[in-house]
Amino acid sequence: MKGQCKKFYITTAIDYANATPHIGHALEKVQADVLARYHRQRGEDVWFLTGTDEHGAKIARAAEAAGKTPQDFVDENAAAFRRLKQALNLSWDDFIRTSDRVRHWPGAEKIWRAIAASGDLYQKKYRGLYCVGHEAFVTEKDLTDGKCRDHQKEPEVIEEENWFFRLSRYTEPIRSAIHGGVLKIMPESRKNEILALLNDGLEDVSFSRPSKDISWGIPVPDDPTQTMYVWSDALSNYLTAIGYGNEQNKNSDAPQFFDLWPADVHLIGKDILRFHAAIWPGMLLSAGLPLPRAIFVHGFLTVGGQKMSKTVGNVIDPVALTQKYGVDPVRYYLLREIPSGDDGDFSEAKLMQRYNGELANGLGNFVARVVTLAQKLDIIQDSVSSAEGEQGIIQNQKLQAECADVNLRYIDAMENFRLNEALEHIWRLVRVGDQCVNDERPWESDKPRVIADLLHLIIQIACLLEPFLPETAEKIQQQIRFESETFYIEKGANLFPRLTTSP
After folding, report:
1. Pairwise CA distance, residues 429 & 396, whole Å
2. Distance CA 168, CA 279 (A)
3. Engineering a disulfide at 24: which of 275, 301, 322, 378 sits with its beta carbon 3.0 to 4.6 angstroms away?
4. What percent of the chain has pLDDT over 70?
């Protein structure tokens, strides 16, 4: 970290390494990548963290079923998640793994000891319902027809002696932090959801499992008979990845904890809201650490209206998808089709509709028309005299007004996690530019001012587009450059050749 400008620390949830990634994982990673790129573009010192959650009963069982050791099993799946970086053109700065005994374990142990020092850990015997899918104890109110609503399986009845965390002590402090804007939760529906939970009062939660039942995890400090509850282990990754617990390591290239914490954004799925907006803040308050500034919550992604399932056979591999359609078209579909804070549905037919209708016929066609006209009419200079206005600026008043309004709406959408709306604002400029070409008909007479304005408009579109479609923005910038009052035009291949085959 450079430490000379405003920092922006963004994290995704670390993915549970019991299987390879699917399109739902891609959605979260791409959303976080857009925010990271946007804040870098604004000159901020960005640190973007992702990784894998590799402990717990579900991992141990999956490894056993695969005939592998837990470590070999998570090594393979972690490698598959790492491959998303190239496949989706992601810009993360770090990838943390909870099985990393050097980077992660010391910090997980440190926060456990800090919570214990606050008097917030105690032992008791407990009998309850345990959902292996959630790696958590649940209550009857969490079930529908006796089954977990998310995993559609009956929980196991478990009776054991565990360490418990006094989460109930932090109901009011967490509520105050949310109401006071110290901890911002978006969208509003998720904020209301967690406030309803707080109104009922938080209950103490189990923080360990007997090591005789689950040994694949971090031993509880000073009590080897117990293994850390997977969530207390996993949530601490946001600290351990930036040096918490390894403060003695003064490597200047490594991020330093107090330069980055608190996180500016945790980007998570709605199924783990309770862990991030209740248990995690409670842990931080107990340990005397600042709360994250914001939690952005996205919804679930279905496929053809159905929940993804290996049994149904509708699990979508994001790597294969990008190989078929290209990286930016897949990014565009996920970011435009899926409302950022709500559930959404994936289908290849809809992807092709968006591709042909908005990428090929929309943006691609508009850029190609203007670049062709610029070359044909030999538009080299932004030939505006000082009497007409400032050079390098759009002179058409309607285009000026549209750009100013879109910029304001774009920033508001980006700052409030409405990424699909931000893209819609960009496409408004594409439509306005296309209409300008149709209205002005610059091919019929010499109208260099019109072409110059349109070239400037495309440069602005590419700038706004860069966080979303970085490859496309770069291709546009290679075709149109404006330096020292001069346009440099180099027509390239079509940005998005039309798709003609059905999915």
Report:
1. 13
2. 10
3. 301
4. 92
Residue 377 has what pLDDT? Answer: 73
β-sheet bridge partners, residue 458: none
Amino acid at 105: W
* CA 170/CA 172 separation, integer angstroms: 6
DSSP 302-355: EETTB---TTTT----HHHHHHHH-HHHHHHHHHHHS-TTS-EEE-HHHHHHHI
Residue 221's alpha-carbon distances to 57, 103, 242, 324, in angstroms, are 19, 16, 21, 49
Cβ neighbours of residue 312 closer than 8 Å, sequence gap 6 or more: 306
Burial class (CB in 10 A: 0-12, 13-18, 19+), 503: exposed
Q: Which of 210, 263, 297, 244 is nearest to 28 (CA)?
A: 297
pLDDT at 425 over 80: yes
| Count of CA atoms in the C-beta half-sphere (13 A) of 438 | 8
Burial grade of 124 (CB within 10 A; 0-12, 13-18, 19 or more): exposed
**How many Cα atoms within 13 Å fall on the side-chain side of residue 52?**
25
pLDDT band with cut points at 50, 70 and 90 for residue 380: low
Q: Which of 189, 135, 192 is nearest to 14 (CA)?
A: 135
pLDDT in tens, 305-325: 888 776 667 889 999 999 999
Q: How confident is the model at residue 252 (pLDDT cuts 50, 70, 90)?
A: low
Kindly give the residue spans of alpha helices, DSSP state H, lying in 184-287.
188-200, 230-235, 237-240, 257-260, 273-274, 280-287
Classify residue 421 as exposed, middle or buried by CB count within 10 Å of its CB (0-12, 13-18, 19+): middle
Three-state SS at 431: helix
Q: Give the separation between CA 130 and CA 154, rounded to whole angstroms.
A: 9
Which 3 state secondary structure label does DSSP give 296? Answer: strand
Q: State the pLDDT at residue 248.
A: 73
CB 239 within 8 A of CB 289: yes
Going by C-beta distance under 8 Å and a sequence separation of 6 or more, which residues neighbour residue 448?
A: 377, 379, 383
Q: Is the dihedral of CA 456, 459, 460, 461 positive or negative?
A: positive
